[in-house]
Amino acid sequence: MDYFQYKQGEYFAEGVSLSKLAEEVGTPFYCYSTATLERHYTVFSGHFKSLGAKVCFAVKANSNVGVLATLARLGCGADVVSEGEIRLAMAAGIKPKDIVFSGVGKTPAEMRFALKENIFQFNVESEPELEILNEVALSMGKRARIAIRVNPDVDPKTHAKISTGQKESKFGVSMRSALPLYTFAAGLKGIDVQGVSVHIGSQLTSLTPFAQAFARVREFVQELKDAGIAISSLDLGGGLGIPYDGQEVAPPSPEAYAEIVRQEMNGVDCELVFEPGRLLVGNAGILVTRVIYVKKSEGRVFVIVDAAMNDLIRPTLYDAHHDILPVMETDAAQTPVDVVGPVCETGDYFAEQRMLAIPKAGDLLVLRSAGAYGAVMSSTYNARPLVAEVMVKGSDYSVVRPRQSYDDIIGRDRIPGWIAEEA
Q: pTM score > 0.85 for this model?
């Protein structure tokens, strides 16, 4: 459930008119709903409250500090993959004790920063990383609390580019090599082994891969205990999908997911950690864009809008579906159209042969389910400024990231001194 809906023929974000927002902040822009964020977090975390679980939002899904601060006020932690994300999380009010540091390429500098801040846990993904982390911790007179990310070799049945739990993946270590690595870690003076971590992919629409992975992890935790390695935390990752409108298979509910966790983790005496990302923010955000031209060519209708692949890359990167709606409701006949952006790439499209009422220049369109991996993956390709991001709460709104200016883009670069001297 989200809080974007038509009211008297116009699409609203909670109590805020999108037409009014477009006039005041310009287009394109991202819009996030506070009520939706709060509801999604409350529903998900509520199913694990009795277990005392730690919920750490996957910051890579949406790193806007306004979004992070909204979740922080509800008690949410953070799953991060860089020093920058640690800094963003703390700026939003998330305590280091609620931060988990994941990722395959942590640098020594990032490790030092995380150790200085005393984060909850490093999710280690390789033996070389473990050795460097040990050296960094010893140089600081500290012990790094870790979990090792194990790879259960489970096919999550999702897009290949967001599948992370199979043996050919760059993520984690295999189950076969995990026990020797834990034994090695337990003997390192700068390492405190406290957990096991697993994450098999993103946008899963079936509970079966979760059940398979969790069962293997449960067995592995027992192997560790039998080997005399005590485990106190169990990070089960994230990955539960959201209903991108138009997809054939609706994802399971958080309630059904929680039941699988209870079944598979029954009797495992560990603090559970979850890393939801898309689940919390995906349907809490939309992208609003204005039609520039409608072009008819060789039997196709191209609706050219002012948003582009640099603003929302998911359709061209993942073949992702985003439902597209007119801001002003219409009962006009629908016809197949291509909704495309102005960037000089054939891949700059949001939908191909989508059934829509043909809009006219100046009309506003909404791309739904754009709160995850939208603005956070955007770029300035074609020297296009990063778009504004707005949060609404009831009838109020706030610009939580101003639109970038051309001066901001130009000011990043420096002309070499030898050219300046010639001038």
A: yes
